[in-house]
Q: What sequence folds into this?
């Protein structure tokens, strides 16, 4: 019995990852007309999950994100690690912000225009 519990405990993170792939990334809804399409859809969604977790590991701010989550959701007072759902939500917010607040290198900012104007005024004086 002890061996069964140890085996189950060692697989727990894998089971959670599979559940997240099904619930958050939609791998459980992969229903297409051909089996070949499903064979491509599920690995793609699991790859999206891996990319999201990898992105969060490199760009996320775990302590700041946990503080915000605890502030917005008081029932998560003991939450120690961000969930896959938290990571996905943050990635969506970042992508939306990048889309609507994109920096255009061909359009100078107000500060850059002001610096150029001041430089021209100094050169003319």
A:
């Amino acid at each position: 019995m002890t061996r069964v519990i140890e085996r189950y405990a060692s697989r727990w993170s894998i089971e959670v990852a599979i559940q997240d792939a099904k619930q958050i990334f939609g791998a459980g809804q992969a229903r297409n007309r051909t089996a070949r399409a499903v064979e491509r859809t599920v690995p793609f969604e699991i790859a999206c999950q891996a990319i999201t977790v990898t992105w969060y590991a490199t760009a996320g701010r775990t302590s700041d994100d946990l503080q915000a989550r605890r502030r917005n959701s008081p029932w998560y007072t003991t939450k120690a690690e961000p969930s896959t759902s938290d990571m996905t939500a943050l990635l969506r917010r970042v992508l939306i912000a990048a889309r609507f607040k994109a920096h255009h290198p061909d359009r100078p900012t107000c500060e850059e225009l002001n610096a150029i104007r001041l430089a021209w005024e100094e050169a003319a004086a």
Summary: The mean pLDDT is 79. Residues 2-124 form one domain. The CA atoms of residues 66 and 81 lie 7 Å apart. DSSP finds five helices and no strands in the chain.
